[in-house]
Design goal:
68% helix; Hemerythrin-like domain-containing protein; Hemerythrin-like; 5 helices; disordered C terminus; mainly alpha; elongated
C-alpha cells in the first residue's frame, strides 16, 4: 500500500490529536469529579454538564465523520462495530443524566459509570482503533477540515441553548464535503454515508 502524503499524515495526526485531547479533558473532569464532595450538587452538576457536552460533541464527530470511512476502508469491521455499540450505551447514560437532577441519589453513581465506561472505550480507541486507521488512505485532509467545522457548529449550537447533541447523527448535506456514494474516486471512504 502506498504511503500517505505528508499533508494526509499531518491531517490524520490532527484528527487523532483532537480526539485524544477530548479524551484527556473527560479524564481530567472525571478525576476532578471524584475529588468533589457529592453534597455540593452545584459543583457536581457543572462538571457533569461539561462532560456531557464534551462527550456529545466527540461522539457526533466520530459517528458522522470517522466511523463511516473507517467501516468502508477496513477489511475487518469489528472495531467499528464495537465502537458504535459502545457509543449507543454511552448515549443512553447521557440521556439519563440529562433528565436527572443533581440531587438524585444515583446521579453521581450514573456519572461514574458513564466515565468508567468511556475510559474503557478510550483505551480501546487509542490502543486498537486509531492504530488500525493509521495507514489507511482515507481523505484525511477532508476529514480533518470537516471535523473542525462540525465541532465549531456543534459548540455554537450548544451555546445558543440548542437541544442536546445526542442520539442519531444527522447526515451532512454540504456539497463541498465528501461524495455521497460512500467512496471517493481515490478509493477513500465517505464519512457522510452513515
Amino acid at each position: 500500500m502506498p504511503r500517505l502524503s505528508r499533508a494526509a499524515q499531518v491531517a490524520r495526526d490532527q484528527v487523532f490529536a483532537e480526539l485524544k485531547n477530548d479524551h484527556k479533558r473527560v479524564r481530567k473532569a472525571y478525576k476532578d469529579f471524584e475529588k468533589l464532595d457529592k453534597s455540593d450538587t452545584e459543583a457536581c452538576s457543572r462538571i457533569v454538564e461539561q462532560v456531557l457536552l464534551e462527550l456529545s460533541v466527540h461522539a457526533t464527530l466520530e459517528e458522522e465523520l470517522l466511523y463511516p470511512p473507517a467501516r468502508a476502508a477496513l477489511t475487518e469491521t469489528d472495531l467499528v462495530d464495537e465502537a458504535e455499540v459502545e457509543h449507543e450505551s454511552a448515549h443512553q447514560l447521557i440521556d439519563q443524566l440529562r433528565t436527572m437532577s443533581p440531587d438524585d441519589d444515583k446521579y453521581a453513581a450514573r456519572f461514574t459509570v458513564l466515565c468508567e465506561y468511556v475510559l474503557h472505550h478510550v483505551k480501546e480507541e487509542e490502543g486498537e482503533f486509531f492504530p488500525a486507521l493509521e495507514n489507511l488512505r482515507l481523505e484525511w485532509e477532508r476529514i480533518a477540515a470537516d471535523m473542525s467545522a462540525r465541532r465549531q457548529e456543534l459548540l455554537a449550537d450548544e451555546s445558543d441553548d440548542a437541544p442536546a447533541i445526542i442520539g442519531e447523527p444527522e447526515l451532512i448535506a454540504d456539497d463541498d464535503r465528501l461524495p455521497a456514494n460512500g467512496v471517493a474516486d481515490s478509493g477513500a471512504a465517505n464519512p457522510r454515508k452513515i
